[in-house]
Specification:
Layout: E1 23-26, E2 29-32, E3 85-91, E4 103-109
Antiparallel strand pairs: 1-2, 3-4
GO molecular function, one term: dTDP-4-dehydrorhamnose 3,5-epimerase activity
Protein name: dTDP-4-dehydrorhamnose 3,5-epimerase
InterPro entries: RmlC-like (IPR000888), RmlC-like_jellyroll (IPR014710), RmlC_Cupin_sf (IPR011051)
Length: about 110
């Protein structure tokens, strides 16, 4: 199974955007900007920010293993992994899309570097 990332975006589903977060490190610690209104394609008209939540999942536990989490209408999600790793699966159900039927898998997290 092939994972897509910032370096490997072949066969990316139409309208999916991968955006690198800048990690600022100094002797005091780390600062990462997670959302800015100046980021084109991430925030703007039609991409207004509505909700943010933080979730902790214990190691070895998978969420939604018994079914897909499906959004019947257009939805914009932004993922940021603070600690650990996360696998996100996106399937294109849009019949009018040039990438209809395509599955993308993304491995996100600390191991992907800054």
């Amino acid at each position: 199974m092939e994972f897509l990332n910032l370096q490997n975006q072949k066969n990316l589903i139409k309208d999916v955007i991968l955006f690198p977060l800048k990690v600022n490190r100094d002797p005091r610690g780390i600062l990462v900007e997670t959302l800015k209104t100046t980021w084109d394609g991430i925030y703007g008209k039609g991409l207004e920010f509505a909700q943010m939540y933080y979730s902790i999942t214990e190691p070895g536990v998978a969420r939604d293993t018994d079914c897909w989490h499906y959004h019947p209408t257009k939805q914009v999600d932004r993922f940021g992994v603070i600690r650990g790793e996360l696998v996100v699966a996106i399937f294109d159900w849009r019949k009018d899309s040039t990438t209809f039927g395509r599955l993308n898998l993304f491995k996100m997290g600390e191991s992907n570097g800054d």
